[in-house]
Amino acid sequence: MRMLLIHSDYLEYEVKDKALKNPEPISDEQRKGRLDEVLAVFMSVEKVDESNPDEVVEKAVKEIKDVASQVKAEKIFVYPFAHLSSELAKPDVALKILQKIEEKLKEEGFEVKRAPFGYYKAFKLSCKGHPLAELSRTIVPSGEAVSKEERNIALEKEEELKSYWYVLTPEGELIEVDKFDFTGHENLRKFANYEISKNRVADREPPHVKLMLEHELVDYEPGSDGGNLRYYPKGRLIKGLLEQYVTEKVVEYGAMEVETPIMYDFEHPALEKYLNRFPARQYVVKSGDKKFFLRFAACFGQFLIKKDATISYRNLPLRMYELTRYSFRREKSGELSGLRRLRAFTMPDMHTVARDLKQAMDEFKKQYKLSMEVLRGVGLTPDDYEVAIRFTEDFWNGNRDFIVELAKIIGKPVLIEMWKQRFFYFILKFEFNFVDNLDKAAALSTVQIDVENAERFGITYYDEEGQEQYPLILHCSPSGAIERVMYAILEKQAKLQAKGQKPMFPLWLSPIQVRVIPVSDDVMDYALYVAGKLEGAKIRVDVDDTNDRLNKKIRKAEKEWVPYIIVVGNNEKEQNTVTVRRRSDGKQVEMQLEDLIREIKAQTEGFPYRPRPLPLLLSRRPKFRG
In the record's cofactor note, how is the cofactor described as bound (predicted)? Predict the structure, then answer.
């Protein structure tokens, strides 16, 4: 069973239509309902619950009671919500479990209301917004048999994990999260609430989805598994430029690029152990009688390369990199959301072999700064993301100054998650997290110091005395998944749009950087001449040769976020000039074409370039959506 518990000012619903052929019979009074000052419990009863329904009811009631006690709620709203799971129980079993939970909670003295089962319902709620207001729980019957490939110890541990949450200031003050004054740090407050609640379900469509569809960048692929997307030409250009940019930054940093398989053997001893230490749900494929899993990071292939390599202390730190197109994680269907969370994604993945903790921490700090630089290049500054740093209490006690320095580098308070003991393979981890328009957070850049896998995979180096030693390994993605970078860029622009500002891509990422609009067919030859000069300077340009009126052509270019709009008429043709509208400042100026080329090149210098992804003339372009 999956549960999402939201402490709310109120929850109300209204039945709209049948979701099942034979839904639960209800009266007219049950078609609407509301409770105020309530703990709303959204529930998905899963197939696994069918093995022991009574145990599931008992565990669910206990969890609900515990949360109600913490938030001091006396009213409970039991709300069937199938979207939390893709492995639902049979409807008759699910209904009986929900009815028993309702009965048991009433016996415990709560005022309880249950929404009808088997219907599409509209609902409204008002979440209270404190750190315990949104929580998620997973219940599994203890007697359920779970196959080796389905069981993941790390995921189980993650759900059981007891975390201690703080905010660390750049001045070095460690403050319990519920005692920190978030005034002036509203985004950090939202991030802390999201992390502590562990609610990853997307209950609404984030604004970036509308933008990615309107701009014909990315779309859902109905012919594939959920969380696998199709990219139209403009989206593929942006994605390809981001892939090239991040790869160039990592190689410039000193990493050696490699390529490894996407499929690995379940029976490989080191890989099998690592699967149970990495919190990810894997895809399983069969080849003959053997089972394989699809990689969810580049760790496997890079570790196996390192195992077979002869490494000297003189080679350290040794950095290896792969752009994994694709990595696969079988995320829950209710968590899939546009570009934010996918099942197939492109992950720039670097692994660094370090001889000891001192060298590992030095690399950690360098990669922390590298990540800031990479995000700055795609238009994301520290004001756009929040930092989480995670470690054990022992690591904090021994390395406090190092952690404080990380907060000083970013220049603002950061969220701290501390554990009494180490559960996973790493002792230190940071993430830069983007908080979107729905107050959901998504990790971008991350670095971890891994203390287990060198020994697990048999990775060694030779020290000065010629003795084999186990190194430490750093896992680094300086940008996070490429798709998630696109999500963050679009969500940022949606925020600016909501404030009345003009949204736009960074100039080097704009699919079309300049649009040339001739005022009539008489100057089409000059429009094509201007476009040719720009294209020769490696600037992405197109020409609006359609029969639309001039104002409509300009509005169309504005709607497509084209950074520079050139309008050419007889005057410009005679004087060999261009009239330019800049999207960045809204100004319209007449200038020499060479000056415009210099202006654009100054802004795109140091970034990768790809040619225009669509035909030069707008009249020659297909429409990919609707």
Answer: Binds 1 zinc ion per subunit.
Domains of the chain in sequence order: 2-138 (3.50.80.10), 159-254+309-489 (3.30.930.10), 507-620 (3.40.50.800)
State the Cα–Cα distance between residues 576 and 386, nearest whole angstrom: 49
How large is the angle between the packed helices 524-536 and 593-604, nearest 10 degrees?
40
Separation between Cα atoms, residue 200 and residue 436, nearest integer Å = 13
Q: What is the pTM of this model?
A: 0.78
Torsions phi, psi of 507, nearest 5? -55, -40
Amino acid 537 reads A
C-alpha 564/C-alpha 57 separation (Å) is 61
Residue corresponding to tokens 């569809």: 213
Instruction: Give the span between the Cα atoms of 275 and 462, in whole angstroms.
Output: 28
Q: How is residue 362 written in tokens?
A: 């030095």
Give the separation between CA 494 and CA 375, rounded to whole angstroms: 18
Q: Are strands 290-294 and 318-328 parallel, antiparallel or unpaired?
A: unpaired
* Residue 7, annotated as binding a ligand: no
Among 282-286, 380-384, 450-454, which stretch is predicted with the lowest mean pLDDT? Answer: 282-286
H helices present in 254-325, as ranges: 269-275, 299-308
The two three-digit tokens of residue 306, written as one number: 């390192």
- Residue 597, burial from CB neighbour count under 10 angstroms (0-12, 13-18, 19+): middle
Note whether 473 and 352 are within 8 A (CB): yes
Left, alpha or beta for 111 (phi > 0: left; psi -120 to 50: alpha)?
Answer: beta
C-beta of residue 612 within 8 angstroms of C-beta of residue 540: yes
- C-beta separation of 208 from 491 below 8 A: yes
Q: Which residues pair with 346 in a beta bridge?
A: 325
pLDDT at 151 over 50: no
Q: How far is CA 208 from the centre of its chain?
A: 12
Q: Which tokens hold the place of 327?
A: 């990595």
Q: What is the DSSP string of 217-263?
A: SEEE-TTS-TT-EEE-HHHHHHHHHHHHHHHHHHHHHTPEE----SE
Confidence of residue 270 (pLDDT cuts 50, 70, 90): confident
Q: Which residues contact 560 (CB under 8 A, 6 or more apart)?
A: 215, 512, 515
Q: How far apart are CA 65 and CA 239, in angstroms?
A: 47
Query: How many distinct helices (H) and strands (E) make up the chain?
Result: 16, 28
Distance CA 488, CA 340 (A): 8
355 near 384, Cβ under 8 Å?
no
User: Does residue 19 come out as left (phi exceeding 0), alpha (psi in the -120 to 50 range) or beta?
Assistant: alpha
The tokens for 29 are 């009074």
**Pairing, β 514-518 against β 541-543:** parallel
Contact criterion met (CB below 8 Å) for 492 and 187: no
CB contact at 8 A, 197 and 42 = no
Structure confidence at residue 149 (pLDDT)? 44
299 is in an annotated binding site: yes
Q: How do beta strands 256-257 and 263-265 pair?
A: unpaired
Band the pLDDT of 296: cuts 50, 70, 90: confident
